[in-house]
Specification:
The chain is of the alpha/beta class. The protein is built from 9 helices and 8 strands. The strands form 2 sheets. It has a 5-stranded parallel sheet with strand order 2-3-1-4-8, with helices on both faces. α1 crosses α9 (205-216) and α6 crosses α7 (169-183). It binds BIS(adenosine)-5'-pentaphosphate.
Length: 218
């Protein structure tokens, strides 16, 4: 029996993980899981996880490993993920990576590739201060690179566009530092396992996507 493939999107905040995961998942006909989206949903819903996560999200810091792992585990155990999935924003620490590996093994998944999208801080600041997201369907826009047709409204569902609370310059800088200290060591970890593919995230969305498709053979 061949195992169902799992693709992880990794990279600094604003590198385009979510944008690219949303393109790759339908191409591979598998679901897309975003840890950040699941945590924001929990905050909006006022759940127990949301109450714990809120302060961390607002400050640009990582939620505790046990919380992130529980949220990821609940998502990947869903029936819709049985044939594989694309996940972005998880794992972000060595502890998460080790526990995730055990989980994938138990659930009989194959970690196919870790797609590491790399961009410099200067570009991150431009992208994230210009990002707007749809409250209803989660579609992502950018005031510099990808404007909606009608200001403040989602092209897809007409929902209201908003700016994430953690997309201010000060919090973006904290998120980048947290990434460098806690998440970037994972790139070495996955390189040693022969899983990492480095993607130049500074090109335009379609060029980056082409490179990703080539890397995963899609
Ligand atoms: P999360 O939501 O995952 O935030 P992030 O990692 O900081 O990443 P972003 O969503 O900001 O960026 P992205 O790389 O997805 O870029 P996007 O495609 O949107 O996590 C938020 C918080 O949740 C964390 O800070 C933490 O508190 C918590 N959390 C999440 N996971 C956790 C975990 N595992 N453990 C603990 N805590 C966790 O693109 C950004 C913008 O750029 C958009 O406007 C887009 O249109 C534009 N853009 C994209 N690609 C291009 C391109 N090629 N050219 C030009 N513009 C582009």
């Amino acid at each position: 029996m061949s195992l169902a493939d799992v693709y992880i999107f990794a990279g600094p905040p604003g590198s385009g993980k979510g944008t690219q995961a949303k393109l790759l998942a339908p191409k591979l006909k598998v679901p897309h899981i975003s840890l950040g989206d699941l945590l924001r949903e929990a905050v909006r819903g006022g759940t127990k996880v949301g109450q714990i996560a809120k302060g961390y999200l607002d400050a640009g810091r990582l939620v505790p490993d046990n919380v992130a792992i529980d949220v990821a585990e609940e998502a990947v155990k869903k029936e819709e993920c049985r044939k594989g999935f694309v996940i972005d924003g998880f794992p972000r620490t060595l502890e998460q990576a080790v526990l995730f590996e055990g989980l994938l093994e138990r659930l009989k998944f194959n970690l196919a590739r870790v797609l590491y999208i790399d961009i410099p801080l200067k570009e991150i600041l431009k992208r994230l201060t210009g990002r707007r997201s749809c409250r209803k369907c989660g579609a992502v826009y950018n005031l510099m690179y990808n404007l909606p047709k009608i200001e403040g409204k989602c092209d897809i569902c007409g929902g209201e566009l908003y700016q994430r609370r953690d997309d201010t310059e000060d919090v973006i800088k904290v998120r980048f530092k947290v990434y460098e200290e806690q998440t970037s060591p994972l790139m070495d970890y996955y390189t040693k396992k022969g899983k990492l593919v480095q993607i130049d995230g500074t090109k335009d969305v379609q060029e980056v996507f082409k490179e990703i498709c080539k890397a995963v053979g899609a």
